[in-house]
Amino acid sequence: MLILGIETSCDETAAAIIENQGKEIIPLSSVISSQIKLHAKWGGVVPNLAAREHLKNIIPIIKKTLDNAQKKLTEIDLIAITNGPGLIPALLIGTTVAKTLSYLWQKPLIGIHHIEGHIYANFISSNINDKNFPLLCLVVSGGHTQLVLMRNHLEYEIIGETLDDAVGEAFDKVARLLGLPYPGGPNVSLIADTYPQEKNIFQIQLPRPMLKSPNFNFSFSGIKTAVLYSIKKQPEKLTDQNFIAEMCREFQTAVCDVLIHKTILAAKKYQPKTILLAGGVSANIHLRNELAKTIKKDLIGVSFSAPHPKYSIDNASMIAVAGFYRWKEMNTKKVGSIFKLKSSWQNMETNANLKLKTRL
Ligand code: KG4
Ligand code: ZN
Known about the structure:
Blueprint: E1 2-7, E2 12-21, E3 24-34, H1 36-40, H2 47-69, E4 78-84, H3 88-105, E5 109-113, H4 114-120, E6 135-140, E7 145-150, E8 157-161, H5 167-177, H6 184-194, H7 221-233, H8 241-270, E9 274-278, H9 285-298, E10 303-305, H10 309-312, H11 317-332, H12 338-341
Bound molecules: 5'-O-[(R)-(carboxyoxy)(hydroxy)phosphoryl]adenosine and zinc ion.
């Protein structure tokens, strides 16, 4: 079975083809066109500019994806498209193209929640399979920070989430406060990771919000505000590269401390077999390493998975894989047959605030 995935929810135009053979999922091709350079001068993503860029790139990218996989559109069995959450002008380009392809070529079309895609990125080129449930997913992206319990495929229970900023958003805001270029997360983390561990000139100590709260929620705006106050007090420190590096390191450590602590706490309560990391911030090396270490130390018999770095950031392979599992479930449970799915383009909606929920 061949699945074409399409993703245009934010600033990456992406298409990918995966093939399912028995129990195996084989990524055949993945093409991503990033708009980072376009948005960098504005310090963040401008929705209308993103949409124009998606419009320009989407057809060539789908064509390139098909060419790279040496497949024709007629051979595709299913199209999976991100239909939310995200920027509406951006989402509309992808969904309109996907609906058109579905209608013209009579291909079933499935809408995928962007975060569902990030979670399913863990099922590409990895050992994760049906035996790993229940899963506890730590979702960390630019728009989301959630702890999601999955007792089975496509079943989502949000057991905790951020009460204010998402973790990626906090990274990006702190980067801006420190005068670092967009996108901030990777820059903050690169500076933090390459600064000598033993150097501690400024003795910076940021808070670890909600560390002791008896639930699984998060709050990151307080850490960001602490960075702001520290800079406001002595703005001249911004010219000191050591200060910037120490601030990046302490910020990254503070955020990861909280994320890891809450994940372990939730795992002790819900007893998952496996903990998954998902979303753009899963590319963060400190978070990946420290979470893996802590799970090994504190949770006996619990395995850990993080997506391959190329599937951590926004991509369409993850959308295609999630599409495959939804298609499989719909057929097994006879919720909708493949024939019904052929008119699925008619019901496809785009929702900027789509909620992650069990939809079967
Ligand atoms: O999942 P994603 O690509 O887009 C959303 O769905 O939001 O996540 C993007 C976010 C951005 O905030 C970016 O700064 C952050 O992920 N990010 C990182 C790293 N790589 C990307 N944050 C910290 N460390 C990284 N290495
Ligand atoms: Zn994302």
